[in-house]
Amino acid sequence: MEEETIKKPRKKLSAEKVSHLKAEYNCSYIKMSGLLVDKLKWLADEANDTQAAARFTWMEFDGDDVCICLLSCQPGQRGVIDLFKIIRKANKFDVVTYSRNEKSYLYFTHHFFIRYRERLKLIDKSILDLVKHFAEHGSDIKYEQGTADEQDSIKAVIDEALLYCDKRTWNLTTFKTIIPKDLLSRKQAAMFNALL
Fold it and tell me: Which of these, 72, 83, 79, lies nearest to 32 by C-alpha position?
């Protein structure tokens, strides 16, 4: 007689954990907005002078508060900050950001960035450099449509990879892992192309 395989239930983030992640992000965002106000003004001037979008990435340290800030500006507009808050815990780290397009918080687990480092062959990069690389190359995320209410796990894509994430709960989407284009199965490649 065959033994039944019992699937472990997926561990969900609690409402308390989600509130804590959002609060940590929001505190950092307010602090960084104050610290970077002069840089944002300079960036807006640069954009107006060249009539082209201007952007750069800034790392900010304040004790345990570590953030990667992607500053960008269109000509004639105020500069904006996309902030990636790094949350350290023992020998691990998670990252929280906010998507203005999605109007939702995005939570990237330690496992996600371990896979990001391995699978995109960024082995020599530090934690900060990994998050900076993602901020510069992976922040334009496109999601599959019409399945978010039907299943827990959804797929999304960036230019170079397929992402697996848990659907938005309490206005937060959790990113679990990443598979680059060159490692996709035929089925995954079809999904990737359809989403891109």
Answer: 83
